[in-house]
């Protein structure tokens, strides 16, 4: 009997343990589910905060978002101004109370300021939400609401400098291409010109004919979206990789007779120019294709590609507006011809003028590239600053030492090389010219110049100029850059 009672007691205890174990297991499952839902909830809250802080304005500003139309029913779209106070876009009300968007300088700022008819582009698109917000004095807003009248929208004050924009626009003339001018130390864009252009005041009237013309590209902002072979401006990258692998004090020597042939591949210097005995500095200053195509054959192609990545090829540029990615493609198994062509800026490499201006700016700024931006601040109709936009670094593109080496090489291009038209001025300049072949017909090339200028009491400026089918960079692009430098450095700001 005693044994049976003991056995029964053990069975009861085991049953109790099993019940507790089951209950504990269920509690654990409930805890896991609770924590899972809590984690999901926290993730949703986190994304909601992220969206409100970082993304909501982009969505509201989208030209495809009909919500913006609701703001337009109560707010007069604000002005867009240059940094020196010129009105670049405004809303005009006629005697019947009808409102139209007006662009006083017509074609000059067409691509960078943009338009609001048939969609939106440029600053009109980027700052859509800001232009449809009003921070007028609250009593004024109250009175307007009582009268059922619209409030005045805030104004966008851009970084664009009217005198620099006009100088670039006039210098490019009737040639197709682009000019970008920015401050290396801040990233402020002072000018952005693209041609062919259009008159935004008549765009709506001409829209059907423009879109019906399959060959028309007047709406394309070539400064940010145009992709071109860089030509000899890419020798900036090639020479830097060579120096990384061989050192700046290497005994480079080349005897140029106007062309070079390797494994049946022939590279000609521009117009078959004979440069004779060259060290690295002279080869760069004279833009010797023969020398640089052979330099390319000695490079570590993997490290070459890594340098291009450091210099923002094949990735998004750090800008808040629409811009295409520059492209660099050269596999480690590339042929002799492809390597030689790539080293002189031909091959499959494509760049935007904006990107090349950023590279020149980074060199001038001791290797650090600043994020390019177009808006300085937002102000209400009383001139009160609502929001300011400050310079910010995108990071070190190259080292300070490397920037110093490139500065010396680019200065020599002006002192004794292909950009000598910029020497002897009231300012100092440095840069690199380029003549980039395109298409299948020989003898046609885009003209390039990328570089920077400096003068005491002035902020430095960097520039990229491309003229489509313009021939040589020294003959066509350099004079355009000179006119911009002359206007900027010889005019009191």
UniProtKB/TrEMBL annotation:
InterPro entries: Beta-lactam/transpept (IPR050515), Beta-lactam/transpept-like (IPR012338), PBP_dimer_sf (IPR036138), PBPA_dimer (IPR054120), PCN-bd_Tpept (IPR001460)
Bilayer-spanning residue ranges: 30-50
Signal peptide extent: none
The entry's keywords: Membrane, Transmembrane, Transmembrane helix
Highest taxon of source: Bacteria
Domain spans labelled Penicillin-binding protein transpeptidase: 177-485
UniProt-annotated stretches for the region Disordered: 1-21
Occurrences of domain Penicillin binding protein A dimerisation (ranges): 77-156
Protein's name in the database: Penicillin-binding transpeptidase domain-containing protein
Protein source organism: Brotonthovivens ammoniilytica
Taxonomic path: Bacteria, Bacillati, Bacillota, Clostridia, Lachnospirales
């Amino acid at each position: 009997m005693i044994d049976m009672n003991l056995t029964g007691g053990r069975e009861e205890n085991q049953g109790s343990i099993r019940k507790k174990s089951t209950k504990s297991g269920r509690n654990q499952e409930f805890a896991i589910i609770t924590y899972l839902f809590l984690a999901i909830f926290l993730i949703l809250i986190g994304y909601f905060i992220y969206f409100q802080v970082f993304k909501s304005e982009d969505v509201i500003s989208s030209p495809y978002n009909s919500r913006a139309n609701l703001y337009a029913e109560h707010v007069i779209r604000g002005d867009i101004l240059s940094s020196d106070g010129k009105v670049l876009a405004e809303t005009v009300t006629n005697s019947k109370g009808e409102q139209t968007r007006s662009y006083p300088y017509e074609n000059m700022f067409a691509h960078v300021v943009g338009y609001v008819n048939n969609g939106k582009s440029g600053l009109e698109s980027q700052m859509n939400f800001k232009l449809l917000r009003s921070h007028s004095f609250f009593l004024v807003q109250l009175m307007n609401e009582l009268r059922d009248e619209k409030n005045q929208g805030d104004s966008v004050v851009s970084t664009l400098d009217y005198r620099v924009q006009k100088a670039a626009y006039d210098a490019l003339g009737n040639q197709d291409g682009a000019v970008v001018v920015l401050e290396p130390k801040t990233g402020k864009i002072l000018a952005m010109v693209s041609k062919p252009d259009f008159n935004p005041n008549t765009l709506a009237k001409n829209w059907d004919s423009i879109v019906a013309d399959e060959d028309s590209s007047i709406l394309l902002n070539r400064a940010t979206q145009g992709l071109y072979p860089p030509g000899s401006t890419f020798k900036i990258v090639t020479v830097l990789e060579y120096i990384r692998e061989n050192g700046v004090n290497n005994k480079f020597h080349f005897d140029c007779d106007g062309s070079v042939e390797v494994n049946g591949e022939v590279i000609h210097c521009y117009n078959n120019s004979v440069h004779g005995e060259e060290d690295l500095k002279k080869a760069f200053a004279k833009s010797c294709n023969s020398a640089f195509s052979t330099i390319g054959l000695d490079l570590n192609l993997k490290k070459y590609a890594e340098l291009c990545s450091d210099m923002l090829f094949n990735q998004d540029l750090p800008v808040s507006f629409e811009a295409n990615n520059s492209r660099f493609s050269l596999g480690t198994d590339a042929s002799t011809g492809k390597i030689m062509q790539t080293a002189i800026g031909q091959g499959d490499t494509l760049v935007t003028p904006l990107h090349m201006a950023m590279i020149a700016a980074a060199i001038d700024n001791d290797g650090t590239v600043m994020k390019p931006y177009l808006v300085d601040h937002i102000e209400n109709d009383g001139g009160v600053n609502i929001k300011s936009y400050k310079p910010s670094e995108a990071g070190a593109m190259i080292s300070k030492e490397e920037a110093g080496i490139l500065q010396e090489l680019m200065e020599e291009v002006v002192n004794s090389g292909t950009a000598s038209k910029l020497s002897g001025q009231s300012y100092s300049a440095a840069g690199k010219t380029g003549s980039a072949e395109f298409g299948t017909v020989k003898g046609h090339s885009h003209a390039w110049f990328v570089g920077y200028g400096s003068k005491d009491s002035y902020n430095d400026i960097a520039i990229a100029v491309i003229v489509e089918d313009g021939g040589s960079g020294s003959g066509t692009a350099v004079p355009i850059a000179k006119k911009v430098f002359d206007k900027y450095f010889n005019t009191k700001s």
